Amino acid sequence: MSAVSKDAKRMTTHVLQRMKREGEKISMLTAYDFSMARIIDSAGIDVILVGDSASNVMAGHETTLPITLDQMIYHASSVIRGVKRSLVVVDLPFGSYQSNSDKALESAIRIMKESGAHAVKLEGGKKIKDSVKRIVSAGVPVMGHLGLTPQSIYKFGTYTVRAREEEEAKELIEDAKVLQKAGCFAIVLEKIPAELAKKVSETISIPTIGIGAGPGVDGQVLVSHDLFGLTKDFNPRFLRRYLDCYNEMENAVKAYIRDVKAKDFPNEKESY
Ligand code: KIV
For 100-108, which contacts have Cβ atoms below 8 Å and span 24 or more sequence positions? Predict the structure, then answer.
């Protein structure tokens, strides 16, 4: 049975902002396809992120850089078909917004028009301010993303915790204020010290959604493949696994192979 009542209202950016004001934590998970989106939505998640982490967990790339706008639109439209209640946010992929605000606006409009998604997410602070403003003024809600920004991995060189130093922490707080002023409805804070994430969350009035950012934020996001235990070699400190899908699925496949080889599948009841 679904955890979402039949008359549950669609999640909106305004409801998320009210949740922050009322102290209710926001739940967010990634999804990239119809089947996964249907399960996650019917369980009652607030926000589904069609993350460019699809590049890693769906396509097997080492980074998020190779995924294209067309591929993100394909994933997003599959997700949208499985969703009744959650707010669906889609990452603008690397190369689809960094060059200028015209390109950013065009990419955001393509995502909204061709996938039916409800909002887009961009990585970065001050540098993307104009793009955020233009996308928001075209009527498209924008989520920001600060801290560890995987699209800049080759600039930073590692996936370690960001903004440990005072200078970088100050800059991150400034970036969060700039994004709020530019019109973002929420900001993802990835892999930064818990104390800093709490400070950012207390400084701005829009919700912060943390991943590896401790408990002092307004909501939490995980990559669903990590939560389900499908990515068995990825074990960062911030990750809590709720299933051991990799081993469970491998065992199921082994059992199927055994049954086929033993001529036990299909049996009489499973045949016409
Ligand atoms: O692409 C993604 O999955 C993300 C989350 C880690 C926030 O951006």
Answer: 100/131, 101/130, 101/131, 101/133, 101/134, 104/128, 104/131, 104/134, 104/135, 105/131, 105/134, 105/135, 105/138, 107/69, 108/135, 108/138, 108/140, 108/142
Going by alpha carbons, the residue nearest to atom 5 of ligand 1 is 51
Asked if residue 221 has its Cβ within 6 Å of ligand 1, the reply is: yes
Query: What's the whole-number mean pLDDT along residues 10-26?
Result: 98
- The two structure tokens encoding residue 211: 């991943």
- Whose tokens are 């960062």? That residue is 236
Q: Where in the chain is the domain with CATH 3.20.20.60?
A: 13-241
Assigned superfamily of 13-241: Phosphoenolpyruvate-binding domains (3.20.20.60)
Q: What is the pLDDT of residues 175-187, one digit of tens each?
A: 999 999 999 999 9
Catalytic residue among 24, 166, 190, 270: 190
Structure tokens of 50?
């069609």
CA-to-CA dists, residue 63 to 84, 113, 143, 153, 175, angstroms: 31, 27, 21, 8, 24
Residue to mutate, 26, 28, 32, 52, ligand 1, most ligand atoms under 8 Å from C-beta: 52
Q: Which of 153, 221, 222, 224 to mutate to test the pocket of ligand 1 (most atoms within 8 A of CB)?
A: 221
4-13 pLDDT, tens digit per residue, is 676 678 999 9
62 is catalytic: no
